[in-house]
Amino acid sequence: MRINTNSPQQSQRTLRRRTKSSPRLSYSVRGASTILISLFVVVGIFFFQVGDRFRDKNLWKSFTIPDMQEHFKCEEAFATTRPWWTSDQWREVRDLYHAFAQENKGTYQMADDNDTFDFSEIAEPFQASEEKGRGLRAARDIREGELVLRITNNTIVITDGYTYRKFMFAVEERFPTFACDIMTWNWCQDLDDEGEKFGIVVDLNDNNLLNAGDEETGANVWCGTYGEEDSCDMKNLTFYAARDIRKGEELLGDYGEFVSSHSRDELGL
Ligand SMILES: *[C@@H]1O[C@H](CO)[C@@H](O)[C@H](O)[C@H]1NC(C)=O
Ligand SMILES: *[C@@H]1O[C@H](CO)[C@@H](O)[C@H](O)[C@H]1NC(C)=O
Ligand SMILES: *[C@@H]1O[C@H](CO)[C@@H](O)[C@H](O)[C@H]1NC(C)=O
Fold it and tell me: Where would one find coiled-coil regions in this protein (predicted)?
């Protein structure tokens, strides 16, 4: 029946092939090609599945901060009052950071590891308001021009998106929803005066809780000398009281002095 639909040339070719090869041989050729095709299908399915899993496994490498916030379900986490980080938890995260930094090049501490400072006499964490969440308040009266906060060995810089994502996943794995906190606390800034180096900076202690002054209240804590242009040292952020601050008053920073939002795009985050 098939022969009927074939063109004369095709029929001739079929005939020639038939006469050329023995029936046994063509049988084994057919068997071999069946095996070969099955093999291709199996290998194909294998690679497709592995490829899929590989893609899923590597998806995080292109995550932006909003992607990670969604992945870690941060919106849910922030729907209720956030817990305080205990000093034990901070210690563990700092230990985790040290182990991480040994294996990952894209991060460093902004100050030497022996450059420490105890802020507990000056600033203390408190629940600022339902809406604002946690904040810092003056632990005693502070005079205008006094040093209030500064970077220490606890301030870390992350200089590429890959390292940032990896560290967030490591923190999240250890303490679920903690990476959500870090992502709201950290800031992007230029790391040199030329504006060619960028990084994400985060304090691995409660200094993170410094809220930004809004238009109404303004900032009472200022990087560099209050009112003095360009006095904020990008490599050594130091915050001074812009006016007298009474004990218990919330400390509010002026992040505009050192935050550069464009660097987040540069880092692909
Ligand atoms: C702090 O450590 C650095 C090395 O990381 C060292 O050069 C410096 O002398 C140390 N400073 C003090 C005060 O120990
Ligand atoms: C900074 O130094 C203090 C005191 O030695 C230490 O407890 C803390 O873990 C250090 N910070 C980091 C990030 O290693
Ligand atoms: C950063 O500034 C503080 C406060 O002025 C100072 O004590 C410290 O030595 C400075 N660190 C560096 C590395 O310049």
Answer: none
